User: Fold these one by one.
Assistant:
Number 1:
Amino acid sequence: MTSITPTNATQPGPSGSRPPGAAPKTIKLKLYVAGATPNSVRAEHNLHTAIKSIAAEVMTFELQVIDVFTQQKRAILDNVIVTPTLIMEKGDRRHTLVGDLSETARLHAMLLA
């Protein structure tokens, strides 16, 4: 599991800055990939790029990259049938995005939802 804190922490985030003394929200992400296939590599790169563009004072991300070749049971438990698949769990809500995550507007909308 990797915790990712965006690097541009001096800029306020899209939803404004958090109240003084409040910890940034931590968003749990799971990226299901199929080894080092081109779409999987692109998805991981695009996700890291998107995360870095979001201000750290607003939120941080806890990212798990899960290879379905070695962890099939986890994919089955999360109902993943296509890779790459990004799952974001935020409270009791779950958002899913499938593909190489090259549609940056959709990816940002999901991360900031």
Number 2:
Amino acid sequence: MKTFVLPFGHFSLLPAFMFFIVLSSSCQTLTGNRQGFNNVDAEQFRTLIDNKGNILLDVRTPQEFAEGHIAGAINIDYESSTFTNEISKLDTSQTYNVYCRSGKRSAAASGIMHEHGFNHLNNLTGGILGWKEKGFAVTTE
């Protein structure tokens, strides 16, 4: 094993290399899909919701939903005290495309859903604001 003498003592390459490997793998874990859902942009989200087997879930308040939502969405308010109870009624084997206003509540909601056994979740980054910015339609019906 090659050893180097530095001003603060002897230095071996093997422990330094092992430290680098451990540090690299932990960084990869932090940036991977550890939250249990996929973050997708508006264009990817549009493709996903075109799949009729997927469920579109708006986690904004009922008032926000009434002001405009993506056609076909169901509304379960993430901020409601009944959110966990409401998602427990859903089929965990389905794929859910989840959105809110900006992407923050839907990311939090997706995390909670994952904790409750949902494994097929897509979060719209940028939320409905990003959706509308791309010129995609919303409805009030």
Number 3:
Amino acid sequence: MSEYKMLGELVCYCHRCKLNLNHRITLMDGNMPARVLCLTCQAEHRYRKTPDQIKEAQPRKAASNADKSKARQSREEDVWRQKLDYKDVTPHIYNMNDGYMIDDRVLHPKFGLGLVIGFDFPDKVHIFFGDEVKILKAKKRES
């Protein structure tokens, strides 16, 4: 870490110029600069680290939201696969004019065995076919 001193110069981010430029320290907060003066536009503002300094200072996150979303989707797919493997329930043969309910097993002539997992109204059904979800035309059956 650099040693900062009053009226010393440093490179930091200028919000007016939108660049990393030379600044003069005008106010210190302990051993860190609090306010600086841009030597290019003469604007005085609070000290802002450069984007590179910010990236170095931040610890790496354990898992991003995308990773969490993928993990959640993977768990959902595992549950759907287990429901698809139930042998005691006879699947319905897919017909776009029929109605289906959540967790109904459907046998499609092209995609094979699937599981109904959701609906888009008025007439779309989401069916999980082992490795992907397809949106097909069908109705929601009221129980």
Number 4:
Amino acid sequence: MRTHFHTRLLSFSHALYLLFGGGWPLLHLKSFEEVTGPKHDEFLVRTVALLLILVGSILLGQRKAAVERSAVQLAMGTSFILGTVAIVSAAGGWVWKVYFIDGTIHLLFVLAWAFLLFRGAVSLYPRTAVR
């Protein structure tokens, strides 16, 4: 079904974005800081990076015809929080302005998942058994 293709495509692209966002500071912190600004606590950078890799790996593992609802909830929640914090922090001047871009991308992923939810391609509710 075409909607399953869109769901898997969204899951795959969201996973790649999260894996890139998590992998970059772990592989080369210096270049990450050159683009995103200096970080005062490398422990927090590594912690968030590993969490992004975890969520990205879960999304990447969704190879079924339908993406599991817990993965959708995790993806939407993660990107909503990261996107909101990034945009608010950039607007407040606490982080570099590049976080406007990152925050917008995260919120676009949330909107894409919401669109698929609205179209019925994915569901946040468990399927009930037919008797």
